[in-house]
Amino acid sequence: MWHGESMDELEFCVKSLSYPLGTLLETLKREPGDKVVVTGRELYVPLIPCAALCYLVARALYGSLDLVDRKRLGDDMAYVEEFISRILSSSLGEKIRPYLEKASEISIRGRLNVDWLEFERRSERLRPILDRILAGEEPQEVSGLSVDECLLLGYLAGERKRREKVNAVLGKLNPSFREAVKAYFKALQG
């Protein structure tokens, strides 16, 4: 768990890949299980390495959405697939691969919906800050953002180069985000 926030490494990972998918984790009660199962209220998670769990949970959450939300988040899933490709081609690959062969063990027993109104409400306040960062500024109010807001800011940036620019500013100016990123990378190495 992070400092004073109820976000753990799994939620951090999913939100870093697809913030809207990650918001679904906020409402699901997590339970231990032998495979990733999404019901309308619970998420059952096996005890497996963080990178594999993040990937499988993101796939399960995406699979639980209706067609409209899936279409809307199609690009995010490309990002999720890119994440796992990078993990598999890294030194972690051999450790993670056996867990991914169980991808067929994902089970979806309930439908979920992204709360787009809530997503917009959270995004509204951050868009002006994002514009200033992309214009080359380093706005001081970034230092007071929560880890969750930092992840949303990165997501709103869109494509990779813009995300990297935003994350560089966040890493420089926001100590909570810097610590969360360190904890996340440590969990990925797990």
List keywords for this structure.
4-stranded mixed sheet, 2 domains, disordered N terminus, 190 residues, 10 helices, alpha/beta, 6% strand
Describe the structure.
It is a single chain. This protein folds into two domains: 9-113, no CATH class; 116-186, no CATH class. Helix 1 packs parallel to helix 8 and helix 8 (147-157) runs antiparallel to helix 9 (160-173). It is globular. The chain has a four-stranded mixed beta sheet, covered by helices on one side. With 190 residues, the chain is α/β, with parallel strands linked by helices. 62% of the residues lie in helices and 6% in strands. The longest helix is centred in the middle third of the chain and has 19 residues, at 116-134. The two termini are 15 Å apart.
Q: How many domains would you count in the coordinates?
A: 2
Flag low-confidence runs. 1-5
Strand content: 5-15%
Shape: globular
Strands side by side in the biggest sheet: 1-3-2-4
Span between N and C termini? 15 Å
**Helix-and-strand structural type:** alpha/beta
Number of helices: 10
Question: Helicity range of the residues?
Answer: 55-70%
Give the overall average pLDDT. Answer: 93
The largest β sheet comes out as: 4 strands, mixed
Order of helices and strands: HHEEEHHHHEHHHH
Question: How many distinct beta strands?
Answer: 4
Please give the radius of gyration in angstroms: 16 Å
